[in-house]
Design a protein that fits this description.
9-stranded mixed sheet; 4-stranded antiparallel sheet; 22 helices; 11% strand; globular; Alkaline_phosphatase_core_sf; LTA synthase family protein
């Protein structure tokens, strides 16, 4: 320790052990040294051999950068329940709007990652006051020996695993090194493997093939049961922030949580088994998926990769049919890179924070009531101009941590809900529903109700993560009569109202679906066939489905007609859930064996979707 090389190396070793213990809830000193310290030692040895002066500064800089990355990883994992990639960490500045929720997750012990600064100050004071001496460094031969070994180990680690597919970033990091897996990730992203043949082939042929893989016999899009049933109607799509399906028709002490939606589903097509499929891009990924029916990347927000490209989409195909297209969201337009995303998706115009202002702010932005009122002003203008329109409204108030001001709390909840996440969530959803009720009324008053298809879906779950305490889990368990499961968590409502169609024959449809399926379902009703390959399917036509979710579940997790299957991850063995009763299935001994074929089929679909998206992004 009388030498800075060892001082920093030992500090970094302690931190790496701490990090692995936190991220993986176990630690292994040998793995920490083999996988992580080999890379740190490599960097330090380079400093030792090639730098003459100011080595301490270089050690300190490397130490601080890595410590900040470690802290970032720990906090990120608490919020998103997965280890971030280097790319996610670079985007942490994007977290502006949700930083309140994130700040709640930082613990005082996290600052231990910077405790060595204190120790360093003590050393410096000892040098200044007591004349304590540090040696200049390690000898050149020792440094060269460290360098050779560290380089050898890091190279072995990288080359052995660089061709493996990263199915679960956390599990992969645990097994093959946190820093190593970041390098493998970067390598996999950048190596030119994707074949674009798929993307450039005839779109219809490809879409049929995807349909077949899912177990369907493809039917011509124009021959689907409801094709064009709502032709030339306006389209209003509401993306409801953090709205889960379980609140629909739920009552607490006789009070409905979503009275307006409950009324509305009775005149709509209500898809009860639809699941979120977003990745790291959360809200913005949901916007991307619904408008394109292309899989998001998973560990990277698709919007962050967009800069000037033209993505085939619902706004584009409707635009070609003479629709005017616009999207509305009350947050800052630069959040999630939406100023680039919206033009890439082909929206004619967008309305964001500078349009909605900061009246009646709740949480991140103006309340949903203000949002819908101001959006309505534009919809009425569109209506007056006589051109059919597609408007997407992305709500905001029902966002974590779901704390509603007193005057917006409409529920009288039992005492045990007081101050809990689930209590706050129910109040907040009840408010979101109230605002939706007002929007529905305004649409009726304006005469838009009868000539617009209106669809609504949740972008992702709200009841999850570290804010979810044992008491919440208990309340949810009591509410459902069974434990809160992954099915309960990822199930979002998807409701489609088509005047003259769904109101004549309202249905609750149990077919398994995902956010990918929304675009083809809606486009089919409107009688507009997408002219590009897409990865979802019309839920009013096809009954068999095979859908994936990456990032929030390990790659290889899938939904089919009956189950949600999640392969082994760093924390859990493979799991199975029954979509029908939403509960975990415990009887199957080796679920991997049952779903191997489905996993392979899904990986094939991912490969095609990723190749297509890469092709679009590079154009
Ligand atoms: C931010 C808002 C919320 O603009 O849409 O985003 P989220 O945190 O849910 O991704
Ligand atoms: Mn969201």
């Amino acid at each position: 320790m009388r030498n800075y090389f060892f001082f920093f190396l030992i500090m970094m070793t302690i931190k790496v052990i701490m990090l692995r213990a936190t991220l993986f809830e176990n630690y292994n000193i040998a793995m920490s040294v083999w996988y992580e310290i080999s890379i740190v030692a490599l960097l330090f040895a380079v400093v030792e051999l090639w730098q003459r002066r100011g080595k301490v500064i270089s050690y300190l800089v490397i130490d601080m950068i890595l410590s900040s990355v470690f802290l970032g990883m720990v906090v990120y994992q608490r919020y998103f329940e997965t280890i971030p990639t280097y790319f996610d960490l670079l985007q942490l500045n994007q977290l502006g709007s949700v930083s309140d929720s994130i700040a709640l997750l930082i613990k005082p012990t996290d600052f231990l990652y910077f405790a060595d600064i204190g120790l360093l100050i003590v050393v410096v004071l000892l040098i200044k006051i007591k004349g304590y001496r540090m040696t200049k460094g390690i000898s050149k031969p020792v440094a060269a020996f460290v360098l050779m070994n560290a380089l050898l180990i890091s190279t072995i680690n990288f080359t052995f695993y660089s061709s493996e597919r990263i199915m679960d970033q956390t599990l992969f990091s645990e097994q093959h090194g946190i820093l190593n897996s970041q390098m493998i990730k970067a390598y996999a992203e950048n190596k030119p493997t994707a074949s674009y043949v798929f993307a450039t082939k005839d779109a219809g042929v490809q879409t049929d093939e995807i349909s077949r893989i899912k177990g369907n016999i493809p039917v011509k899009f124009t021959d689907h049961k409801y094709f064009g049933a709502a032709k030339d109607k306006n389209l209003i799509v509401i993306q409801a922030e953090s709205l889960q399906d379980f609140v629909i028709n739920l009552k607490i002490d006789g009070q409905e949580i979503t009275p307006n939606l409950n009324k509305w589903v009775k005149e709509s097509f209500y898809f009860t088994n639809v699941f979120q499929q977003i990745g790291a891009g959360n809200t913005s990924d949901a916007e991307f998926i619904m408008n394109t029916s292309i899989y998001p990347k998973g560990d990277v927000a698709v919007s962050s990769l967009i800069d000037g490209q033209e993505i085939p989409s619902l706004p584009r195909i409707l635009g070609e049919q003479g629709y005017r297209t616009a999207t509305f969201h009350a947050d800052d337009i630069t959040y999630w890179n939406r100023d680039k995303l919206y033009p890439a998706l082909g929206f004619d115009e967008y309305f964001a924070k500078n349009y909605f202002g900061d009246e009646d702010v709740v949480g991140i932005g103006p309340s949903d009531e203000v949002f819908y009122q101001k959006s309505m002003k534009q919809l009425k203008k569109f209506q007056q101009q006589g051109q059919p329109f597609y408007a997407q409204l992305v709500s905001l108030t029902n966002h974590t941590p779901f704390e509603m001001p007193e005057d917006k709390q409409y529920l009288d909840l039992p005492a045990e809900y007081e101050g809990t996440l689930i209590g706050n969530y129910l109040q907040s959803v009840r408010y979101a529903d109230e605002a939706l009720g007002q929007l529905f009324q305004s649409l009726q008053d304006a005469g838009l109700w009868d000539n617009s298809v209106i669809a609504l879906y949740g972008d992702h779950s709200g009841v999850h993560g570290r804010l979810l305490q044992d008491e919440d889990v208990k309340l949810l368990g009591d509410m459902f009569g069974s434990p809160y499961s992954l099915i309960d968590r990822f199930n979002v409502p998807f409701i489609v109202y088509a005047p003259g169609v769904s109101d004549k024959n309202p249905q609750e449809i149990e077919t398994t679906g995902g956010q990918l399926d929304m675009m083809p379902t809606i486009a089919n009703l409107l009688g507009v066939e997408p002219n590009y390959v897409y990865f979802g399917q019309n839920l009013l036509q096809y009954e068999n489905n095979l859908l994936g979710m990456r990032y929030y579940l390990g790659t290889g997790s899938l939904f089919n007609n009956d189950i949600l299957y999640t392969p082994e991850t760093s924390k859990r063995t493979a799991r199975l859930y029954n979509i029908g009763d939403k509960d975990m299935v415990s009887k199957v001994v080796n679920p991997e064996d049952y779903f191997e074929q489905n996993v392979d089929q899904l990986l094939q679909i991912y490969d095609w979707s990723d190749a297509y998206l890469n092709y679009l992004l590079e154009k």
